[in-house]
Write a structure and sequence with these properties.
The chain has an eight-stranded mixed sheet with strand order 1-2-4-3-5-9-7-8, sandwiched between helices. The chain has two domains: 291 residues, Aminopeptidase; 50 residues, no CATH class. The radius of gyration is 20 Å and the shape is globular. Helix 3 crosses helix 9, helix 4 crosses helix 9 and helix 7 crosses helix 9. The chain is α/β, with parallel strands linked by helices. The termini are far apart.
Length: 349
């Protein structure tokens, strides 16, 4: 496989990281000024409105035959992929590596919807303004944002899609004591989870991304369950013949702002795109199943009590007076030996 030089990527990342985006609460107000700064290399277009009338943008560049569609923040409170997208755009526009950039431009046409759910982003909620989960609306198409994404999918007819999400801090990597910092999924097309040509191609791209990431965050990469969800976006797009790669950005130690995870998300994204760029066959897939499962085995804080029950807590985010506030909330009591705390406090010694 053609794996990018991770030392080179780590060297250039501080320069391509979009400094105007930071933290977990990213809104349309944060990214609209960045559209203005884009040079002629990237075209921008307002392709629709959200339920509350906010603009939804599409970016486009490249002139190749391989069509790639990327979208982020279909869940408004999942912004790590959005930050990584703008880091990727900076890599492409700042002449960081003319050879890689030229290969991508010549081989691919890439369209990006950086924020599909601007109403949910502002409210810092998973759902849209009408309480619809866009990632479970691929069949009913109740939300105007879902209709827009599907319309754009049909018009652009991409060969590959990147569906960018965040996952909660509760997820770890099976067989390790590490949190799942990046997790991947090649969605199923139907209940039997059959290995179709499309799923195999999707797995092949994930294998390349995993190979890169294992060099820098070994054992921090998980594989999401491929249970078929009949109303899910990725499952339906995969079924329609658009190979859809799900990237879930998770927790990295002491990184609640998701800034380190954002960096790893960028590495995965550019490796996936480059792999699509330089390959004509996407048949090697078996190493995909060597990626350990995601499991729910973490809490943010665990109080270990030798004399009493253990107590587990999670941070709950909410917007208060135009600020994102995180507060610990008790989740579980009892013998919690099977769980790991990102922070553990021992009492009674």
């Amino acid at each position: 496989m053609n794996i990018l030089d991770i030392d080179f990527l780590q060297e250039v990342y501080p320069d391509v990281k979009e400094k105007k985006l930071h933290g977990k609460w990213i809104t349309l107000t944060d990214i609209e000024p960045l559209y203005v700064e884009l040079n002629g290399f990237v075209s921008k277009e307002i392709i629709g409105k959200s339920e509350q009338g906010r603009d939804i943008y599409k970016l486009r560049f490249g002139k190749g035959e391989k069509r790639i569609l990327i979208w982020s923040q279909m869940h408004g409170n999942e912004s790590t992929g959005t930050k990584a997208v703008f880091d990727f755009l900076n890599f492409m526009t700042q002449n960081t590596n003319p050879s890689i950039v030229k290969e991508i431009i010549d081989s691919c046409t890439i369209e990006i919807i950086p924020m599909l759910n601007p109403d949910g982003a502002l409210a810092y909620t998973r759902v849209n303004a009408n309480k619809v989960d866009l990632n479970r609306d691929a069949v009913d198409l109740k939300a105007c944002e879902s209709v827009l994404l599907r319309k754009h999918l049909d018009e652009f007819n991409p060969h590959f899609c990147f569906n960018l999400h965040d996952q909660r801090t509760i997820f770890g990597v099976k067989g390790t004591e590490k949190p799942a910092t990046i997790s991947f999924l090649a969605p199923s097309e139907e209940e039997t989870r059959k290995l179709t040509d499309g799923r195999i191609a999707t797995m092949n791209v994930i294998v390349a991304m995993n190979e890169l990431l294992q060099q820098i965050i070994p054992d921090h990469i998980g594989r999401y369950t491929d249970e078929f969800y009949p109303t899910a976006t990725g499952d339906n797009f995969q079924k329609l013949g658009h190979n859809t790669i799900l990237i879930e950005a998770g927790h990295y130690p002491d990184d609640y702002e998701r800034e380190k995870t954002r960096e790893f998300n960028f590495y995965a994204l550019i490796q996936g795109i480059y792999h699509i760029t330089v390959n004509t066959e996407f048949k090697v897939y078996k190493p995909y199943f060597n990626i350990p499962d995601n499991i729910k085995n973490f809490y943010d804080v665990i109080h270990r009590n030798e004399q009493k029950e253990d107590v587990a807590f999670l941070y709950i985010d909410q917007v208060v007076e135009n600020q994102l506030i995180s507060k610990l909330k008790e989740q579980k009591k009892g013998n919690l030996n099977e769980y790991i705390g990102h922070t553990e406090i021992v009492f009674g010694q």
